[in-house]
Amino acid sequence: MDAYAKVRRWARRRTSRATDWPLDRLVEAKGTRGVSVILPAKDEAATVGGIVSAIRTGLPALVDEILVVDSRSADATARVAAEAGAKVVHQDAVLPHLPALPGKGDALWKGLAASGGDIVVFVDADLRNFGPHFVSGLLGPLLTTEEIGFVKALYERPHITENGVTHPGEGGRVTELVARPLLNLYWPELSGFVQPLGGEYAGRRDVLERVPFVSGYGVELGLLIDLLGIIGLDGMAQVDLGDRVHAHQSTAALGRMAGQILLTAWSRLDRQGRILSSEPLNPYLLQYERGRPRVSDISVAERPPLASVARQKAGRQG
Ligand SMILES: O=c1ccn([C@@H]2O[C@H](COP(=O)(O)OP(=O)(O)O[C@H]3O[C@H](CO)[C@@H](O)[C@H](O)[C@H]3O)[C@@H](O)[C@H]2O)c(=O)[nH]1
Ligand SMILES: O=C(O)[C@H](O)COP(=O)(O)O
After folding, report:
1. Quick check: is 48 in a domain?
2. For residue 314, pLDDT beyond 60
3. How many Å lie between the centroid of ligand 1 and the Cα of residue 28?
4. For residue 76, what are the CA distances in angstroms to 49, 51, 73, 226, 285?
5. Residue whose CA is closest, atom 4 of ligand 2?
6. Which of 18, 50, 55, 289 has its CA 20 to 30 A from that of 68?
7. How many domains, in total, are found in the chain?
8. Domain Glycosyltransferase 2-like: where (predicted)?
9. What does the pLDDT look like over 184-214, one tens digit per residue?
10. Residue 89 domain-assigned?
11. Is the residue at 230 inside a domain?
């Protein structure tokens, strides 16, 4: 039996390219719906301004709100983003009655809470080759196909070394070494997503508010798995955006990211009743830096579906 027949059928039906979605068609399809673009940003002063400007000047008729969530930056991220024309909120200032949590997933969830669009696009703030097609491409299937509730980007990912040497197709190490094997093991229906960990995706607010957001780097894997349970594979699509160039993290940092992704997968297996956990998982990771041991806390917490949280406390305007 061909285990991937369903995935191939889905991929044929639900994969498109950014060039399939011309702007005039999208603006017409948008109608009166509001679109918010949310950028989680921790120390991204070097890139966030250019991305905000490109969205603001390139997609004035398509994007109603650009929101940068300053994720405890130590640099000028907030100022640069505001000067480029974004609305900026600090991660810990949104829903401040809740205990603060660190991490990208929490920044996204706070962005969802503080934004107002009917359709929400998430874009990483460290992209080096951003163009407006990142946003318009993701909006294409959502604005034109009622049954689609979530759209994920796919792209080619080079690995660029510190000396500037480019290795085409070698980016996405955690994707290839951890996420893809995990998905194929336990959720093979999701194996058609070419970039399951990519930070660029979009969804309908009413869909995104029905799923939890893992606080750290497990957020993308958690969303895919949880959305599969809510809207099914056919409610999801992917769009080819071409190439994506971003800032690479060290191997040790990617080890901690991989740990958070494994913890997220484990929590979903547990929730789905697919494992019997007799003792709590160890939330620490022991790594060796040039032979020297270093222990990191890689634990992840979770935010509940936003719909279950009092809306008036979200700090929304209007
Ligand atoms: O505590 C944090 C950490 C990161 N970020 C931002 O999140 C985005 C992506 O973070 P980054 O550290 O650059 O992640 P990558 O190494 O690029 O990891 C990839 O894989 C992760 C795990 O799935 C995804 O979350 C990322 O979007 C994806 O690009 C960037 O804008 C960061 O500034 C935050 O807002 N808060
Ligand atoms: O998605 C991933 O696998 C991580 O972001 C690592 O990507 P990189 O290997 O391109 O840095």
Report:
1. yes
2. no
3. 33
4. 10, 15, 7, 35, 31
5. 172
6. 18
7. 1
8. 36-142
9. 999 999 999 999 999 999 999 999 999 999 9
10. yes
11. yes
